[in-house]
Amino acid sequence: MITLDRLINVLGGYGVHLRHCSTPRSTELRSVVIHEPGYVVGDVLIAVGAADSAEAIAWASAARAVVVLVRDSGEPVSSEPEDMAVMVVDPQVSWSELAAVVYGLVLEGRETESGRGPTDLFALADSLADAVGGSVTIEGRRSTVLAYSRMQQHADPARAETILSREAPQRLRAVFEERGVFRHLAESDDPMFVAGDPDYGLTGRMVVAARAGRELLGSVWVTCAEPLPEDRRIALAHGARLVAMHLLRSRASADLERQVESELVLRLLEGAADATTVVSRLALPQTPLRVIALRAHTADDRHAALLLAFERATTGFGWSRPGRSALAGNAVYTVLPGADASAAGRWLTALRTALPAHLTLLAGVSGPATAAELASARREAEECLALHEVRRTGAAPVYDEAWDDILLQRLRVAAQSGRVPQRGPVAELREHDRTHSTRYTETLRAWLEAQGDLANAGQRLDVHENTVRYRLRKMAEVTNLGLDDARKRLAMMIELAVTDSLSEADNPP
Q1: CB under 8 Å to 469, separation ≥6 — which residues?
Q2: Is the pTM of this model over 0.90?
Q3: Is 396 a member of any domain?
């Protein structure tokens, strides 16, 4: 079950728009039908094949539908039916994709923390808690909390902390790992009792795997001070099978929505000719947009960490999230509204908070762009990401703030491929520093950065300006500096900036 208001809001992200509404938006919807020969009845009618809105409305009236979805012909609704909402579907939206989304929303109706393919996991947790006589928590494969019961019988501090943090704390996970709980979940469908430990605020747990075939989808945890009686163990095992079914259905719905969203985002990033239409289908505003490119990894795994980041980036229904994301190659790309880079910073901070502490997240943010410029914005974001991967620390680089560093990084990449000048003033001064323990390269850089001001250069080097003057005279005996030539000064500044990381001669021992 879902309300009309929510159906309108969610479908707005899929290219479906409300054209007429004469029924309260609080109306509850419980069934979906597609027009076909014969007698059909349902709250939502998908008018596949209707020649125009008039025919679709006639079908809906016959089916006693509250909502009718009809292909948008660009013409106004021919009539304004009473007690009915008419929603028009963009020509680019396929009926099969839309039908899957509508069926999932109306028939499954309730949203969980996983955000996609809403299920009645909370209601199931309540029913299971009544059957087994203890507080129930349903967790995903990575110990994230998906749902929990209202019952607080035998509840302990460990359960409260797990629910509040939306995942099992690391210290509890370590205890369960040490006691073989996760190994048992991976190998067995039988419930397992975990004895309590006051040091960890743990009363005791009965835990069982939620599995579909051989695949572990999650687990069900019951708070109890001692092992459950046989009849309640059987009820717990049966409940775990129901949980597995719900999780499997939820994942199928999530995969479908993510696929639709990813395909549209990738079309934008590849320079789609109909970019404005695609942005509208994604329910993004026609205001400046930014592209965020990110990678995630742990010490021993890159792929799982990236998938987890993508899952978190796409948590929640599309209309409830500011950005739209896609997974492509070894990176996640997100298109985010906002001319101000601070919005991207807040989005990355929220994502970082939602990920495990041991996971490393690196990202880059493009400059503001229109829908038609998103392909170029993607390249900007990728270059900013590459810069962050070099730095490894600090905030994610933003293109309009870090374009100079990105330019130098491009030149450094070229230099690392062996295209570094082996002769010329900078190379010859570096060689002299290596062989004679002088500080000529450092002096040249200070003089260039001070734009020829000897006093300023001396302050940078912490020496008297006469020392700078003396060094410059000696440097001129080593190589032809050409400091009176503006082009040569520019070339030397670029070479120094590019090759700094490739040489240790600037700071001789």
Answers
A1: 454
A2: no
A3: no
